């Protein structure tokens, strides 16, 4: 026991010396990266992220290990501050800044997810799927339609929802054609990730860059053509290997429920509100999204009243209603939000924020952006996002805050958004489709086409640097 206490005192003393040697009242000293507390924090994050990577095997939700790691990292950091004689308020202010960043992301995504869940409950996506599978298109046409719709829907809905919707169409059209399903799923993943890259509403990394103020809302549309190229080049090549046969059309008819079209309109108005808050009032977009959520709140009350009356008097509303289901309730849609994902973001932001206080991000920023140069570093970020989730990678870049031009910030937005398409595990869209088309769309099936996807990745980077050269 005495030996253990002696070790603790020695480690604490080492941490205190590191602070005393380099802390200047602002950012913690770079020397902290070599302390026992720094190493322990880094090890905690790596261990937590390994559990996230093996979520499918362990069945442990990804939010749990990163939340625990985040808590312990900040405990270690707070102890370091106290041992070094640094005012405790500094650790307090640092974690409050991270919590504030998370709160903005949480509220923004919570409003968006509630709208998506509401449209799902009103059969908006099911009606689109029903229309597609009943048309009798050839497999090659279905390949192009699902990829195109993944590209155009994901800027508004998130890429995960878009991928699941288009994946359901593919599985309904030709469930036994493994080659077609695998190619179509790859096409959907690439299309959904590319479409989300140029819209803050389509990809979390783009949203983070926008909320951080590194680019204005309209400036992300400079990435439209590069993102289109990122999807189009692999799609053209892969389509050559898709059969032109026409499967038997399915007789499926799903109607949207009462109020579905008006919810779509309110979602569009919510997007306008969020953009207006940021562009014209200098207020956080999350505040605009929450105002937009109130639009849905009042309209949900109207739907509930109408459906209650319809159920009481057994009078249909003219469009398919909830039938015997409970009347529409907005709080049920809030409850159905991806809370595991939202809490995962909390853990990631606080883990990365804590490591930043230890000086690790400053060290990485020096090695990457000063050593490799901004362009090479930003391309590397995209490749890393295919292996590691793009959320911590992008948050780390934003926390480093390297001095870059608008063109470079758009480049890292593009690469972080589309880099996940290189591997099936590189994005939420790919992971979701591996579950939907289990045994058909696999890691190995995607890996065979990674060189083709990489060709689109490289072409999109060159397109951005050529078309938007003036922004660099």
UniProtKB/TrEMBL annotation:
It comes from the Bacteria. One of its GO terms (cellular component) is membrane. Residues 1-20 form the signal peptide. It is a multi-pass membrane protein. It holds the Pfam family CitMHS. Belongs to the NhaD Na(+)/H(+) (TC 2.A.62) antiporter family. This is Na+/H+ antiporter NhaD-like permease. It comes from Desulfocapsa sulfexigens (strain DSM 10523 / SB164P1).
């Amino acid at each position: 026991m005495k030996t253990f206490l002696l070790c603790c005192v020695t480690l604490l003393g080492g941490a205190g010396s590191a602070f005393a040697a380099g802390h200047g009242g602002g950012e913690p000293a770079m020397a902290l990266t070599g302390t026992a507390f720094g190493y322990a924090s880094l090890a905690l994050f790596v261990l937590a992220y390994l559990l996230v990577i093996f979520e499918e095997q362990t069945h442990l939700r990804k939010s749990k290990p990163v939340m625990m790691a985040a808590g312990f990292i900040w405990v270690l950091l707070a102890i370091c501050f106290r041992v070094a004689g640094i005012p405790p308020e500094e650790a307090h202010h640092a974690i409050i800044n991270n919590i504030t960043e998370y709160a903005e992301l949480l509220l923004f995504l919570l409003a968006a997810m509630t709208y998506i869940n509401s449209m799902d409950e009103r059969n908006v996506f099911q009606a689109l799927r029903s229309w597609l599978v009943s048309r009798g298109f050839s497999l090659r046409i279905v390949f192009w339609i699902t990829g195109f719709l993944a590209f155009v829907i994901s800027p508004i809905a998130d890429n995960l929802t878009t991928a699941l919707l288009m994946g359901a169409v593919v599985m309904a059209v030709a469930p036994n054609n493994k080659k077609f399903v695998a190619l179509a799923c790859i096409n959907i993943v690439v299309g959904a990730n590319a479409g989300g890259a140029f819209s803050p509403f389509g990809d979390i990394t783009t949203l983070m860059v926008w909320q951080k103020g590194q680019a204005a809302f309209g400036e992300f549309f400079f990435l439209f053509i590069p993102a289109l190229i990122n999807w189009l080049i692999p799609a053209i090549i892969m389509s050559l290997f898709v059969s032109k046969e026409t499967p038997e059309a399915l007789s499926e008819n799903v109607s949207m429920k009462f109020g579905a079209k008006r919810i779509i309109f309110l979602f569009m108005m919510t997007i306008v509100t969020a953009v207006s808050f940021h562009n014209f009032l200098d207020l956080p977009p999350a505040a605009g999204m929450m105002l937009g959520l109130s639009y849905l709140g009042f309209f949900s009350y109207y739907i509930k009243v109408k459906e209650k009356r319809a159920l009481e008097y057994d009078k249909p509303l003219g469009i398919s209603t909830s039938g015997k289901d409970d009347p529409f309730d907005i709080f049920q849609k809030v409850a159905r939000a991806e809370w595991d994902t939202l809490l995962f973001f909390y853990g990631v932001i606080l883990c990365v924020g804590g490591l930043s206080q230890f000086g690790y991000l400053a060290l990485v920023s020096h090695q990457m952006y000063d050593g490799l140069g901004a362009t090479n570093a930003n391309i590397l970020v995209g490749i890393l996002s295919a292996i590691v989730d793009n959320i911590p990678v992008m948050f780390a870049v934003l926390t480093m805050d390297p001095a870059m031009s608008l063109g470079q910030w758009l480049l890292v937005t593009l690469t972080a958004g589309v880099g996940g398409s290189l591997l099936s595990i590189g994005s939420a869209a790919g992971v979701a489709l591996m579950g939907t088309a289990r045994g058909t769309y696999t890691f190995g099936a995607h890996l065979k086409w990674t060189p083709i996807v990489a060709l689109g990745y490289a072409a999109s980077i060159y397109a951005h640097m050529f078309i938007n050269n003036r922004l660099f």
